[in-house]
Structure formats: C-alpha cells, structure tokens
Amino acid sequence: MSVALVTDSSSQLPSELVDRFDVTVVPIPVLVDGVEYQEGVDLDADGFYALFADDVIPDVSTSQPSPGRFTEAYRRLVDGGATEIVSVHVTESMSGTLNSARLGAQAVDVPVRLVDTGTTSFGISCCLWEAAEILASGGGVDEAVARAEATAEIVRSVFILQALDFVLKGGRAAGRRIDLVDDVPVLRTKGSQIAQVASGRGVEELCDLMAAEMHADGDPIRVALCTADADAMVFTRGLEARLAERIDIVELVHYRVGPSIGVHTGPGTAGGFWYPVCRSGA
Which of 64, 108, 135, 159 has most Cβ atoms within 10 angstroms of its Cβ? Predict the structure, then answer.
C-alpha cells in the first residue's frame, strides 16, 4: 500500500518537513482588505507582514479551503498511486477546514483517514510529524493515526505577542485574560486553550521565560521555533541559543508564522512548539 499525507497550510509545516515526508499542503484562503489570497501560493509570510509597513493595519481574515480543493489534492495523490490517505488538520472547533476535507474525501475512491488534532498552527505539524515517522518506519495507517491523536494530547506551545493592540482589536483574545501592562505577555497553549503564564520586558528576560517553559518532565523533546517577521528574529535567535545548551532536545526545526496564523497574532510574534518523543505505552 502507498499511504499519502495531507495537511492544510495553517499547520505552518516548513519545506524541510514537507520534503522529508512528501506531504501535500492544501492552502488556506486569506482575505486582505477584501482580496482573497492562497497561503503559500500567492501570499507568503514576507508578503503578508509587508502589508503592515508604516503602521498600516489591513483588514485581514481567513476562510477554509473549499471541498473541491481537497478533492483535487486527493485525486492527484490517487492518480500518483496512493491507495490510502492520512489527512491531518486544524481543530474542527475553530475552523471548517476539517469538514471541507471530509466532503472532499467523499469524491475519491480510496480511504481517507481524517485527523482532528484539537490544536492549531505548528501543533498540527507535530501530530503529522509523528504519524509520518510511524509510516516511514513501516507502521500502518491505524498506528499512524493513533500516534497523531496521542500527540495532540501532549503538544504544547509558548509564545509572545508584540502586537496586542492588533490582536485585541480583532477580537482574537476574546474570553482570554491578558494583562494589559507595559510588559509583554508570555502565553502558553494546550490544544486550543491559551493562558498567560508570565510577562516580561526585554529580549533576555522574555527568552529566558519562554525557554523555561519548554520541557517535558525529563523526557526528550522535539522543538519547533517560530518567527513571524524581522522584528521577531532576535527572540528566535535568543531561544535557539538557550536550547542549544540543553541535552533533552532531540531535534529542532524552524518555521515561519504565515498569513493564516498571522491574522490572529500580528507582527512580532515569536516562540515555538514542543512535545515529548519518549512516552510510556507509546
């Protein structure tokens, strides 16, 4: 059997992992001042953040891909020899993407296993990463899907938002308590839940706070560090320097905060995701 892997672009899956596991990425539509773009096709991260130059704040939002987009992607894979497809996506509680994938799968003649990761952004990629590792090592689809779902329960992220006015104005922090002080909030996520865990000032303090969150009670971890735009790069470098001194990091990759996530977080976002790779009973 030939098993193909699919995700949506809100996973922020970097080309390094796309190429390693031969993943098909279905683009998320991003609307900027009423004009629709396809993430990663005609609007990348650099192009998106350039829209915020000179203190301009465009009207930005996202939609879900149409079922037809998924049908096209699945058919291409079937035509290429896929006999089964594992399709890993953003949580259905926050997006209609999974339902579009479900409808799109009805138009192809091979099994499509859909995974609701219960999370967003690179958390989706963490679930996909583990499923891909299972398949690459000779495991079956059932085992790969089970591993993806198990990973969804343990993946975490920590990040800073430097564009709070943008985030709050857009209602992105509705129902989530964020201290509106001069300090920059340090936020941690579990699934689709978000909480403020600290706040700080300056690159050194904020990098220390974020690095301190990235652990798994002694287990080795995989880490992905994110960068939104140039203003966030200093934090990415600071985090990487701190993690380089650790012996519990199995692998570290980098990804950009692309348009579909940037519409919620704004410029200046930095941080990352991590999850343990050694689990009893896994």
Answer: 159
